[in-house]
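Translate sequence into structure tokens.
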Amino acid sequence: MHSQIQMPLDLSSVDFDNVDIVTESASQMLASANELGLFMSQTSRQSVNARRFVEDATVWISNVRKQIDAYPVGKSLALIDVYDLLHRVTYRRPADRGFVNGIILKALEARIHGDRSVDEYVLYRAIRSGIGRKDKAFFDRPLQWLCLTEESWYNEAVNGYDRSRLSDYDILNRAAILLETDLFAFEGSNQTTFKRRLLNNTRHYLDNYTAPDPKTHLALNRYLSTSANFLSEELDKSRN
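Result follows.
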């Protein structure tokens, strides 16, 4: 039985004033792009469905750009990666970096001033990505926040996670970030030993753990992927 290409999204039904509806529509757009093979550069865009997708995505991107400043800052931050990905698929180039950076930096200031609706892990990864690109927009206050946050999560892992205070979502994200981060500044040449201990202390997530909600399930998948990469690298080293 052949799978059917998902029907194009009816943009007339999307209320661009409602960020939750916009986020749901983004998932539908990405699913359509994937089914049409548009994440592969060699895919032709001459089919009726591909041309329709590009037309719809152009409208979606334009509307979101106009409205995004009106959305709650935490939800704008959560949406910006999808916005950038759809922009890349549609225009074959990244979204305007100044625009994207502005959303991230606005979220940073909100988080610093106590807005807990801004997901600190989404924010951390966005800033880390900017620093990795050597983007000067992230070299001052964002870099300082990232370093202090990283140090806090490291110290917390050293002392053992307080499960009465932290959710599984927090622990999974923090452990995954530490496993994939260069911790030489904290552990020197002993960082591999530290990471092995961290993995051992959180290994129950590797067994028969069932995430209680979709958000934690995504964090679990990231943790599992990061753990597998770390163990694979360790195995490769032992063979050399």
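Note: The radius of gyration is 20 Å.
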